[in-house]
Design a protein that fits this description.
The chain is an alpha/beta fold. The protein has helices spanning 82-97, 117-130, 146-150, 171-174, 204-213, 227-242, 264-272, 284-297, 314-318, 341-350, 357-380, 387-395, 456-462, and strands at 29-32, 63-70, 105-112, 133-135, 163-164, 197-202, 217-223, 247-254, 277-280, 304-307, 326-329, 420-426, 431-435, 441-444, 449-454, 469-470. It folds into 2 domains: 53-193 and 338-395, Rossmann fold; 197-335 and 419-470, Rossmann fold (3-Layer(aba) Sandwich). It contains 13 helices and 16 strands. Strands 1, 7, 8, 9, 10, 11, 12, 13 and 14 form a 9-stranded mixed sheet that branches. Strands 3-2-4-5 form a 4-stranded parallel sheet. The chain is globular.
């Protein structure tokens, strides 16, 4: 197989796929997240006697300007990350209705990067000129991050721009010291481009399948539109086999523009390999095409179909083709709003029955920025909100969980994936929790994170024989 570089299809970034499992885990530790306590400590209002000043780019005496950049208005995939705009705006509106941040109103500037590297670079440059930080952004073509890393603050110091992103597909953005990704970074930073790289893989779903159904024989689909999507998918595919459990019966890369009939190739592979598992690291559209072709041909009723949080969509939930599909999340499902106040707040403010998953991640990115900013104000006062102080505080953040809605994550080191997972299954057009069983909880523990050192692109080109190296 040759690495495809197609730029004319629906491109899916940040594919943290669920690795098929291989060995039994130790007794899991569930993290209870039901109705968390409000993290705000009662104290005097710092705004009462404050004389507010313009202290940083994007910070005046009465306003903080933030930018959200997302791939939205491209003909290649219209509205791809519209949820990034929606979720961040919902958070900003709620913040302003509750007094703003650091005694100032928050203004949100939306920049459409249009799945275009030039527009993405221009977005960084524009944010450097007029915004305190980026929040909730998701742009696939962040090839050039020089401005993000080195643009000047108000005093002319080349410290760059804080970026509290919901998605970062390109290694250059992932490894930027100024990027704080809401779900964490999967790969080691820094790394040599042509050398094997250490990856952390969320393998909770694979472990669940192994323990529930025994050794799996899996067929794998991944998005091959960009090297970055291949780079993020291959570690999860390979780690199952390395851990002496999952049998890889075949794998193929598909463009987002592939039609349903093209997935017939995968069905032939599944038949020949007696597959019991079919896993995609692409999106819900890819999965539905694959399952649609399987329904047309018949004979795949006993297969465990799997995906991850990018498939957590209303379209997939409501499709009869999706029945039985498993997927993993690192946050509590929407149906549990009654046991988590942050989730309930998010759903209330977005006003939708089932918001885009990118809305959820961008809302959480806003809350991450808010937590960091509040720590800055606590240490430096309402006129201490500089880019440097924000970067310093974010880089030392030991724990963030969006008030218990998300699994805990730290930002002191990379890789920094959360080791928490919830597994849901589509049943009668609903996402039903299957593990852990108790509502409002996450399965958290080191058993959920697999570690592998691999050259992903070379492994994709070489096929399953290029296994990589398991890291204990």
């Amino acid at each position: 197989m040759k690495t495809a570089l197609k730029l004319t299809s629906v491109i899916i970034g940040l594919a943290l796929i669920a690795a098929a499992c291989n060995h039994s885990r130790e007794v899991s530790t569930s993290e209870t997240t039901t109705t968390p306590e409000d993290r705000t400590v009662e104290k005097s209002n710092p705004c009462n006697d404050a004389v507010l000043e313009a202290v940083e780019i994007g910070v005046t005496a009465d306003k903080i300007t933030l930018q959200v950049m997302a791939d939205v208005g491209s003909s290649l995939s219209p509205g791809l990350f519209q949820g990034a705009f929606d979720g961040t705006q919902a958070w900003v509106d709620w913040v302003n209705e509750n007094g703003g941040l650091a005694c100032r109103e928050v203004e949100l500037v939306k920049w459409d990067s249009k799945i275009n590297p030039i527009e993405t670079e221009n977005g960084f440059l524009t944010a450097c000129e007029d915004s305190l930080a980026q929040v909730g952004s998701n742009a696939l073509f962040a090839f050039n991050v020089e401005a993000l890393n080195t643009c000047d603050d108000k005093d002319g110091n080349p410290i760059g721009l804080p970026d509290f992103a919901e998605g970062a597909a390109e290694p250059a953005q992932q490894c930027s010291p100024n990027v704080f990704l809401i779900l964490g970074i999967q790969g080691e930073c820094p790394f040599e481009a042509d050398e094997p790289r250490l990856f952390h893989v969320q393998q909770g779903l694979g472990l669940y399948l192994h323990e529930t159904f025994g050794t799996q024989r899996c067929a794998y689909v991944l998005s091959n539109d960009l090297p970055s999507t291949i780079n993020l998918a291959m570690p999860g595919i390979r780690i199952g086999a390395l851990s002496r459990g999952t049998i890889n019966v075949g794998e193929r890369g598909f463009s987002g523009s592939a039609i349903q009939a093209q997935y017939g190739e995968m069905l032939s592979i599944m038949k020949e390999g007696n597959a019991t598992c079919a896993s995609t690291s692409s999106d819900s559209n890819s999965l539905l095409k694959w399952r649609g072709e399987a329904m047309t041909q018949g004979g795949f009723d006993n297969v465990n179909w799997t995906c991850f949080y990018q498939c957590y969509t209303k379209v997939l939930r409501d499709s009869p083709l999706a029945e039985g599909t498993y997927m993993w999340l690192t946050f509590l499902p929407y149906s549990e709003r009654d046991v988590n106040s942050e989730l309930d707040l998010f759903l209330t403010r977005t006003g939708k029955d089932f918001p885009d998953v990118w809305s959820a991640l961008s809302w959480a990115s806003g809350r991450l920025f808010q937590q960091v900013l509040e720590e800055v104000v606590a240490k430096h006062g309402v006129n201490g909100i500089t880019r440097q102080n924000i970067l310093n505080e974010a880089k030392n953040l030991k724990s963030f969980n969006a008030n218990g809605w998300f699994g805990n994550i730290q930002y002191k080191t990379k890789p920094n994936l959360s080791n928490c997972v919830v597994i849901v299954q589509v049943k009668n057009k609903e996402f039903v929790r299957v593990h852990p069983e108790e509502r409002g909880t996450l399965d958290c523990g080191d058993h959920n994170i697999g570690k592998i050192r691999i050259n992903s692109i070379q492994s994709y080109d070489d096929g399953p024989s290029h296994t990589g190296e398991l890291v204990e």
